[in-house]
Amino acid sequence: MTGRVGWTVFQKRFDGSVHFANDWEAYKNGFGDLNGEFWLGNDKIYQITNTRSYRLKIDLENWSSETVFAEYATFYIEDEAAKYRLQVGIGTAGDGLSYHDNNRFSTHDQDNDGTGSYHCAITHGGRGGWWYRACEHSNLNQPYKQGGDGTEHYGIQWNHWSGHYYSIKSSVMKIRPNLP
């Protein structure tokens, strides 16, 4: 008999109470409060997702209380030596993450985005860590911005659902093992 396996949340944003414009070490080790907003830590995410096959679900909510989710049947990140390179399959909800597949994690003090001409974590990410690729179609770790519409690359972004300059109200990233 195969039992139902619960989700492990590794990122949660909903009120801006935790600063996500952190450096490499903070994203490596994790920050925030598990009862509030947090990032679990890239080392922990790597350790969890490299023990077996995992899937990713991302829950999003806009400022009109509309919700969507994206689900990816494949998700893992590589170790720190590989700069926590993202490995993700094709998803749903406008699929804002598969664009970032096979890209390395960048923070304001570790430029791994591969653009060469500028540093996405500073220029587009407001210093939030993410798997940048010239620069992003999504970034759920940018500084929190109240109210949705804007004119800059700040706020929680999932461009294929909400548009390029719309800041989403809340996001949750969670994983669970793929069941046989």
What attributes characterize this protein structure?
10 strands, alpha+beta, six-stranded antiparallel beta sheet, 180 residues, Gamma Fibrinogen, Chain A, domain 1
Give a description of the structure.
The chain has 180 residues and is an alpha+beta fold. The protein has one domain: Alpha-Beta Complex (Gamma Fibrinogen, Chain A, domain 1), CATH 3.90.215.10. Helix content is 12%, strand content 23%. It has helices at 24-29, 42-49, 120-123, 159-162, and strands at residues 8-13, 31-32, 38-39, 54-61, 67-72, 75-77, 86-88, 138-139, 157-158, 170-177. The strands form 3 sheets. It has a 6-stranded antiparallel beta sheet. The protein has a two-stranded antiparallel sheet with strand order 6-7. The longest helix has 8 residues, at 42-49. The protein is globular, with a radius of gyration of 15 Å. It starts with 7 loop residues before the first strand and ends with a strand. Residues 1-179 form the Fibrinogen C-terminal domain. It comes from Branchiostoma floridae. It holds the Pfam family Fibrinogen_C. InterPro entries: Fibrinogen-like_C, Fibrinogen_a/b/g_C_1, Fibrinogen_a/b/g_C_dom, Fibrinogen_C-term_domain.
List the helices and strands and how they pair.
Layout: E1 8-13, H1 24-29, E2 31-32, E3 38-39, H2 42-49, E4 54-61, E5 67-72, E6 75-77, E7 86-88, H3 120-123, E8 138-139, E9 157-158, H4 159-162, E10 170-177
Antiparallel strand pairs: 1-3, 1-10, 2-3, 4-5, 4-10, 6-7, 8-9
